[in-house]
Amino acid sequence: MALVMEEFDEDKVKVPFGTKHLDAAMCFPASATDVHTAVILTHGAGGDMNFKHLVSLAQALASNGFLCFRFTCKGLNLAYKVKAYRAVWDFLKSLQKFTIKHIFVGGRSMGCRAAAALARQLSDDSQDAVQGVICLSFPLHPPAQTHAHRQRSEDLRGLPEHLPVLCVSGTEDIMCDRVLFEGTVEEMKAKVEVFWLKGGSHGLAVKGRSEDSVLDEVNLQVMTWMSKQGT
Does this model's pTM top 0.70? Predict the structure, then answer.
């Protein structure tokens, strides 16, 4: 599968969140009169929705017929981030501009932990609520603290059987021991596909390779996986 890069538009959005608002951006195909599948993405503990990896993936998604909704949530508390994610989910479902039928949730590092936690909550309410989960650099444990992997992976392991999950991690990620993560995947009930980026760090940087070439490879993995989900 090759990425087809078509024209896309992007709108900046303010998502109501309690007494505040979350900054968000909606990237979508320029030529489409309607889009039925959306992907929500958010960043890790540092940065914001304009982190280059998220922007690159959002543009690739929009260029291939999907709506991508990414948002900023600066809180480092996971429960707070999950609440923010739920607010974005509710906002997206209420959009009048598109008829969204399928929603994937995902993110980078702590952002994908929040996505997995939300998917687990929503799946308890409705079996077909979430179409799939995209985990970029899942933070299985803090650096040199592998004992935390059980607690960190609780929501991943709690995802239901019907839910497809894509995990993209670097083989040199100091926050995701490969042996421990593969053991976690074996315990998961959900249908998991793991792509190991050779030489990739937690930031998915690879020595000797340009950032753009790595991003293109990661984006292609996401698109290929999504095409298998019947979208």
Answer: yes
